[in-house]
Amino acid sequence: MNDQTDRYGAVTHEVLNQPTELADYNMFGADTALTEAVCREGAAWAVHDLTRFGALTGSAAYLELGHLANKYQPELDTHDRFGNRVDLIRFHPSYHTLMQTAIDEGIHSAHWTDPKPGAHVARAAKFFLQSQVEAGHGCPITMTSAAVPSLLLQPELAARWVPKITARSYDPRNLPSDQKTGLTIGMAMTEKQGGSDVRANTTRAVPIDTEGPGQAYELVGHKYFVSAPMCDAFLVLAQSAKGLSCFLMPRWRPDGSKNPMQIQRLKRKMGNTSNASSETELRGALAWMVGPEGRGVPTIIEMVAMTRFDCMIGSSAAMRMAVSQVLHHCSARSAFGKRLIDQPLMQNVLADLVLESEAATMLTFRIARSMDNRQDAHEDLLARLIMAVGKYWICKRTPAHAYEAMECIGGSGVMEDSPMPRLYREAPVNAIWEGSGNVQCLDVLRALQKTPEVLTAYFSEVARAAGLNADLDLHLLTLKTDLADHADLELRARDLVDRMATGIQAALLLQHAPDYVASAFCSSRLAGVGQHQYGALPRTAQVGRIIERALISE
Ligand SMILES: Cc1cc2nc3c(=O)[nH]c(=O)nc-3n(C[C@H](O)[C@H](O)[C@H](O)COP(=O)(O)OP(=O)(O)OC[C@H]3O[C@@H](n4cnc5c(N)ncnc54)[C@H](O)[C@@H]3O)c2cc1C
After folding, report:
1. For ligand 1, which residues put their CB under 6 angstroms from it?
2. Per-residue pLDDT reduced to its tens digit, 7-18
3. What is the DSSP string of 310-371?
């Protein structure tokens, strides 16, 4: 007797019309927008390596690590069983494997140790792939990478720390830095009374002996958010005699004793759960001043600028993962007699999600090229402005994108064993940390005021697409006029930055993407057709071709 002929009816049904897991595909090779961006923006030399890495990140076993690292969340042991203070974070082995791989691949350092043309682009592509597997461990990877420019402002500290920070060696042991082969770095700025406004920080820094840059201080205060508190050292903002200054605070003192930075508890977060985030007390913790005294914000901003760029990469990656999931699902699922991917209304939604994802990828990798070419005045000015514009726009577009993708999958997209809830709950985080939306918009205004040349760089960049699309031409004309009006700038900042973002995304798509992608983007994002919801592209949009371009050929 087989299943079909079970005369007692114990077999209730066959599983029909359900997709398989999206796995065992080449996450790099299957992503046309990404592969084109990598080559166009200066890292064609990395394609072979990225193809190898894309096979790993798209493999079933590797994707499973992302699921496990979030299912089994980190735990804090404040003390060992003998009563000694240890401040130890325990992670699931899957988390360590992800960290190990990211560091082996140089995602934390390849762009610093081998800064050849295209290095930032190639590293961004690896981070883009790794983030699709798991976003939470990206936090310490990003901070470790981003700490380098700030540390270089204090050369003798940099000489001691940077070689092990950039080493391709993941060493998670809770030991003093001189006993370890590789080091990770976190950051502790935020306090209860001031997150965005760090000038309100009350943590005090008292010199142990001599005052000034490079000197040892003791820090007393409380930090309300310290992510990845298992890192080996942290860049911290604290008030010294001359104002807010930046410090490097190690987990262990050089004499081998535990530095009194005590983790009070781990945050209970709605998303980003594989990443431990803590509340931490500094009880006379040793730290060395980095950069000029009283210039803490300009010193740590070097780090923050890099983390903001990684937020753009991470959110673009999340959108790509959402697109991959929905295209895979809708290709295999039928309703009302047709595959979902062949239903006109679903095609409109899918194509719209693809447009958003491709535009985000394109802008992110354009900025990666700027970062590889900071010696070029245009690229430097463009990066300064677009880092804030892109961080604001791309991160803000991601939550709605994740939700709409979830709905394309239907009820099973809401289930915890689907990747969608993780994408959805992760999505707001990039928009909130490292400068929330409004703070980014105010940063854009500050850049325009302080260095008006950034606006010249913006308009000369977008002018490369002049005459290619009437909607863009008009969009840029009115944007220029509205930017020249300096009344109520703060009140209008979001509107202006939205338009700067869509303007540059449209200009890039018109130059580098197929016509049917660029024209659908311009009519929906610039000419005001649709955009109240995803899936309202005009009837002229070639939705089938837009989808086809983003499909994964497994
Ligand atoms: C998961 C997670 C991990 C984190 N990890 C770290 C970490 O490792 N280290 C660390 O230092 N911090 C960390 N943070 C803190 C994060 O950087 C802050 O939450 C963020 O900077 C915002 O600060 P806040 O929460 O105090 O909000 P606030 O500063 O109070 O801001 C609240 C809102 O007001 C807006 N706002 C602020 N100023 C203005 C203004 N002038 N005009 C208009 N609107 C304004 C902001 O955009 C925001 O929307 C983490 C946060 C999260 C969620």
Report:
1. 186-190, 195-197, 225-227, 269, 272, 277, 429, 432-433, 436-439, 442
2. 667 788 999 999
3. HHHHHHHHHHHHHHHHHHHHHHH-EETTEEGGGSHHHHHHHHHHHHHHHHHHHHHHHHHHHH
